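Sample intake sheet
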Amino acid sequence: MSYKDACVRHESGGYYTLDFHELGLENPARLFFTEKLFGQLEESVFAQLAWAATYPGVKDLVLTPDAHVGNCVPVGCVISTDGTLLLAPIGFDIGCGILCFKSDVPHTKGLDEKLRRKFSEEVMRRIGLGVGQRGNISVSNKQFQEIIRTGAAALGYERENSERDFLPVDDGWEAPERAFNRGIGQLGSLGGGNHFAELQHDQDGYLWVMVHTGSRGFGFQLAQHYMYAARAEVKDRHGIGVEATYIKPDSKLWWGYKNAVSAGANFAIANRLFLWEQIGTAFRRVFGKEPELVYEISHNLAQPEKTPDGDSAWVHRKGATRAYPAGHPELVGTKWEATGHPVLIPGSMGDNSYILRARPGAANALWSVNHGCGRKMSRGAAKQSLTQSGVNRQMKALNVMVNAGGNVPIDESPDVYKPAKDVIDAVVAADLATVETILTPIASIKGVD
């Protein structure tokens, strides 16, 4: 019997369970899918989930409704451990995440082609686009050290509009030279791949902007450094891939990697806030109104947390985002205590994005939901089956301007992703969160790699 066939549907909870007891996992994995999405899952996703269950120290496993095949483990998984740090679930883009801001500008202004183009060109002039591109923020070595240690706090921001000010970095830890030198020039850059800045409007008729980016070359070099170091230490997973390594709490590498994850996350937080300032300035110049920062949140991290059962664990979220509902202890004393914090879920450039609020049911998913809508087609498959002229026509028909009227990245076009509504329906059906705001794209900006 395949792992997929072994899954058990729990109608009342809106999820499936999969018993990995024979692999050493005490609790069944929980998979949050509608029957439609579950039926579309490749068997390889289940093989990767089984692989995740065999890591030492794993206590619990969750799969979110946007899940798809990743490197070693699925994108869209949440894994709690006894302190063992798993490198694949954190990945190369440490601390990648989403930021959004809103305005009281009527959405009709965003539909004006000249204004859309002007906004897109202004943004593209102000930020670095594409893999390896530098940003336009210049900082000294001392300032960069402060940023990778104190994140948003280094820029004068407080937690009110951010998931956190920073993750702590211990005195005595220093970033590897290659990571430091690569990262210091990339603040204020968006990068490539699925990273974007997107002009949108909400269901009430006002303009918003959503931004998706991470730790850029800084996080990549940190991850690569520790992956190769861990591979030399871990002998039983050679031949599987450098990302398949792990670092136990008693390893001499654990302290260094724990700090590297924090530093990468701090860079990513600061980078998103730098982008908010640059893109916010572009917005004000084009639309004549000052926008308001709503929230900033990460989705590729491992951090110590209290799990819903009251235990302490290191919770790894690979392409998944934290979702604390109203009254959660971590929100006490914040502006989100009575409502839960915003959960930001982007769709494809041709589909809706969503702002959610977590429900108490999110406890079943280790206080987590999906981070997006999930790929249904690999980059290679997209480039083989789709054409440049075809995706350009598609976005024009959807009335979404891409890169100020330039070519649409084929491997990021709408048909590459799952329908956003299908994924959000699974979240709502499982009582993980409720929909607060629906955002429709008007203009999308992405690096073309």
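Comment: DSSP finds twelve helices and 21 strands in the chain. The two ends are 41 Å apart (CA to CA).
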